[in-house]
Amino acid sequence: MTAEDVASATPEPDRPHADPAQPPTNPKRKVLTASLVGTSIEFYDFYIYATAAVLVFPLLFFPEGDAMAARLQSLATFAIAFVARPVGSWVFGHFGDRVGRKATLVASLLTMGIATVGIGLLPTYAQVGVAAPVLLAVCRFGQGLGLGGEWGGAALLATENAPRAKRAFYGTFPQLGAPIGFFLANGVFLTITQTMSDETFLAWGWRVPFLLSTLLIAIGLWVRLTLHETPAFAKVIASGERVKAPMVEVFRTSGVAVVLGTLIMVATYVLFYLMTVFSLGFGTDAENGLGYDRSQFLVFLLIGVLFFALFTPISGLIADRFGRRPTLITVTVAIIVFGFAMGPLMGSGSTVGVLAFLIIGLSLMGLTFGPMAAQLPELFPTNVRYTGASVSYNVAGLLGASFAPYIATWLAGRFGLNWVGGYLVLVGVITLVALLLSRETKDDSLDAIPSRAAS
């Protein structure tokens, strides 16, 4: 035996052997923390704009005139982000399926954060004229771009690291970012409005929630940079099954799944933005709405969002026990019934009726939103999963949420609240049909890769 033979046969104890079949794993707590913290920050950034679009921007970024026209213009800029989100799902989905989940999640967080801080530094209409709403629209587009890439990556971070029997429950952690982000956003606005005069709030106080995002972004980056790649995507890398053009591939191989995933998510989006952005505008409108004090209605919303947060993890446990499809079908039927009750509850104007409206609606929101982080990713194979789940989620946002507050505000002003409830019933029926046409995915493997990949 030669010296070379001996050397080659002797293991090197100080050089660990890479086993592509066993990629590094992330500790459960780190995965759940990273997915929760990241989406909470992103949704905080997104929702402070929604609140400001009702309370601040109509006064500071649009010409003086009709209050309703200014609010509708402000809500139109709110909708711009939903146009940007499918673009973000394409851009970040491409890199998420080509480069990896971890790096893409970091990039999406930075994109959202820069746009949000930028809004907090913008000049107003009184200072620069029409340039103010233009700059506001540009920053809002940046927010949508970032969130378009965020959700898919966070959902995959949770579900691709989860045991199969607990995927829906793990998936509720990024979903919890929505109620937590909303609670933080409106809690900050409520604190500010109660500790300073209206003049001070409109002069500079409204900027504080946007600038606070700087601190939150630093926390989110620190958490995410310590993660390993998800095991499912690490296997894609090891097998050489990455595709060159994930967007082309997902429509070539999973076009039906994209359509069904989009329609499954539509009612969830409409419900949420009716319960939050529309209800805040209608509830605080003294001329055409209920005329509640701004701080009082924010408290009502925060109470409702607690129920949203409570039922989100519960829905994951139910979906793991009984399946995604039956869980979501049952909740969607309940959303349709709620649409018929919307006018009488919200239209009563009483504190009891308004609170019941918000609590019931946001409880249903938790029940329908929770399983989506498992439902949508499970529709797609690993090598196009980031793109497929992101596209479905964000095109649903474009169809279901972008103009939901605008449409609802117009319907309520023109025909009354019952028509807003009818709007929710209509989209609920669309989602119900999509769910009836879909298949159960609870027992599917997330390691599945097509045998032929266009790599």
From TrEMBL:
Residue ranges of domain Major facilitator superfamily (MFS) profile in the record: 31-446
Cellular component terms per the entry's GO annotation: plasma membrane
Domain of life according to the entry: Bacteria
Protein location: Cell inner membrane
Region Disordered, residue ranges: 1-28
CDD domains: MFS_ShiA_like (cd17369)
Pfam entry (one): MFS_1
InterPro entries, A to Z: MFS, MFS_dom, MFS_trans_sf, MHS_symport, Sugar_transporter_CS
Membrane topology reported for the UniProt record: Multi-pass membrane protein
Transmembrane spans: 46-63, 75-93, 105-126, 173-192, 204-225, 256-277, 297-319, 326-346, 352-370, 391-413, 419-437
One annotated GO molecular function: symporter activity
Keyword line: Cell inner membrane, Cell membrane, Membrane, Symport, Transmembrane, Transmembrane helix, Transport
Function: May be a proton symporter involved in the uptake of osmolytes such as proline and glycine betaine.
Family recorded in the similarity comment: Belongs to the major facilitator superfamily. Metabolite:H+ Symporter (MHS) family (TC 2.A.1.6) family.
Protein name: Putative proline/betaine transporter
Organism in which the protein naturally occurs: Nocardiopsis aegyptia
